[in-house]
Amino acid sequence: MRRDTSTYDALNIAPFQTLVLMSVTEFSGRDDLNAYAVVAPTLMTMWTCALIFTTDLVFEDKEDGRMETMIATPASFPLLVFGRLCGCMLLTLPAFGLTMLVAGGVFGYWMPVPHPLVFAAALLLAAVGTAAAATAVSALFVIRPSSYALGNAMVYPVLLLSGVMVPAAQLPGPLEAVSRLSYLAWAAELLRDATDPSPVAYALLRLGVVLLLGVLLLGVGVAAMSRFLRRARELGVLAGDA
Fold first, then answer.
1. In the chain, what is the greatest distance between 2 CA atoms, to the nearest angstrom?
2. Were 18 and a residue from 8, 58, 102, 153 both cysteine, which residue would form a disulfide, CB within 3.0 to 4.6 Å?
3. Whether the predicted pLDDT of 41 surpasses 60
4. CA torsion angle for 162, 146, 85, 99 (degrees, to 10)?
5. Which of 54, 50, 31, 32 shows the shortest CA–CA distance to 42?
6. What pTM, to 2 d.p., does this model score?
């Protein structure tokens, strides 16, 4: 992570994203979608920050010469990256408080959370799943730092396909199938359902799906990182571009 405040730019824009989305729902007469406008910026911030953190983490480890040291230790380097990203994800959780304050303070909408345990569990699993996804993405940066632009390009397509604002069920058929494979889509639906007074259907099963998809992403990340590290050793590019 960078030591300057630019690392937290994505966190800073969460209130502005809330202003935009809440304006759309309020002034279009769809205040029934206000919960969507509060949940979406939280997950958008989480994913955006994850890409920033993982890029900075890999690049700074290379620049400071820490990567070779960590790889030489008996510990698994991909799991070290995942653990550090889990810690970084804690910094994104205040985004939910910011979106709540903006929605309540500006629009008078204080989002109810009648199922706080489901909401907290879904938010926590979404953060862990995001750390796992970022671990998979970081494998690209290990061998090819020029993939930074690719990381930036992944922000909004992933959010759109993940049904963060528009539910997966509202996407066209093939896109809905893709969206159902995203942990973010399941987490977003759980978070929105937790704001509804009616019971959350199959809450444990759906939380299990979020966890399972996160574990699968972590497995992909560990496998990809291990493969790319072997490739980087062969090329001798651990401390530089390929």
1. 60
2. 102
3. yes
4. -50
5. 50
6. 0.83
By the 8 A CB rule, do 18 and 41 touch? yes
- Tokens for 91, please give them: 């910094």
Identify whether the C-beta of residue 1 lies closer than 8 Å to the C-beta of residue 138: no
Q: Nearest CA to 147 among 34, 21, 241, 79?
A: 241
Q: What does the alpha-carbon distance between residue 196 and residue 208 come to, in Å, rounded to a whole number?
A: 20
**Locus of tokens 């824009």:** 13
> pLDDT averaged over the chain?
83
Integer angstrom CA distances of residue 28 from 121, 130, 197, 200, 231: 32, 32, 24, 27, 53
Beta-carbon contacts of residue 144 (< 8 Å; ≥ 6 apart): 241, 242
The closest of 49, 41, 36 to 191, measured between CA atoms, is: 36
Q: Is the pLDDT of residue 31 over 70?
A: yes
Q: Which contacts qualify for 3-10: CB closer than 8 Å, 24 or more apart?
A: 7/52, 7/53, 7/56, 8/49, 8/91, 9/52, 10/45, 10/48, 10/49, 10/52, 10/92
Radius of gyration for the alpha carbons in the chain, expressed in angstroms and rounded: 19
- Residues 175 and 158: their CA atoms lie apart, in Å, by 11
**Residues 169-223: tens digit of each pLDDT:** 777 778 888 888 889 999 999 999 999 999 999 999 999 999 999 999 999 888 8
